[in-house]
Amino acid sequence: xxxxxxxxxxxxxxxxxxxxxxxxxxxxxxxxxxxxxxxxxxxxxxxxxxxxxxxxxxxxxxxxxxxxxxxxxxxxxxxxxxxxxxxxxxxxxxxxxxxxxxxxxxxxxxxxxxxxxxxxxxxxxxxxxxxxxxxxxxxxxxxxxxxxxxxxxxxxxxxxxxxxxxxxxxxxxxxxxxxxxxxxxxxxxxxxxxxxxxxxxxxxxxxxxxxxxxxxxxxxxxx
Length: 223
Description:
Layout: E1 3-14, E2 20-31, E3 35-39, H1 46-53, E4 61-66, E5 69-70, H2 76-86, E6 87-90, H3 102-113, H4 118-131, H5 147-159, E7 165-169, H6 177-194, E8 197-201, H7 205-209, E9 213-218, E10 221-222
Parallel strand pairs: 3-8, 3-9, 6-7, 7-8
Antiparallel strand pairs: 1-2, 1-4, 4-5, 9-10
Helix pairs in contact: 3-4, 3-5, 4-5, 5-6
C-alpha cells in the first residue's frame, strides 16, 4: 500500500483565554485510493484536524507528511504550491465565483498552477464536467445552478489538478438527501474507477457508514 497522508503525534492547542488542548496525539495513515470519513460530534476536533492536514493551519506540534514529504516547517509559499498541486478541496459551501462561468470556475486552480496551456486546461475541465454530468451547464453562471449542481462543479474544480488527495469538509452538509446521495456516489466512483484518495469530515452517519473506513473522534482524540 502507498501511504498518501500520515501524521505523527499531532497536537493542537488553543490559547483563548486559557490553554486548551484541541487535538491529542493524532497518529493517522491514509492509503492511496482509500475513501475515509472522519466523524464525531460537534466540537470533537474533526474540522480542526482537517485544517491542519490541508496545511491551512500550521500552528501545531507533531509532524504531517503528504506523499512521504514532511510538510511541517515549510514556508507559506511552499505550502501554497503543494496545496494547489496535490490537494483538492470540497467544502460545505461551494465557493464558486459568481463572476465566472462554470467552466472558468473549474479551470481556475489549474490556471493558477500555470503548468498547461489554456486549451489543455479547458479540455481537462470539460472532461471533468462530463464525468459529473455537468457538461451542458459549462457556460452557465453559478447563480443559474441548483445547490446540488454547484457542489458537482466544486468537485470538478477539486479534480482539475489531478490531486493526490481530495479533502472534504461537510461536503453534503448543505444538501438534501437526494443531492447528498449523488455527491456520495460521485466520491465512491472517484475511488473505485480513478483510484482517487478521499478524506471527508462529516456529521452524516449514513455517509460515514458507507465509506471504506471511518475514523471516529471524541474530545480531540481518535477513538
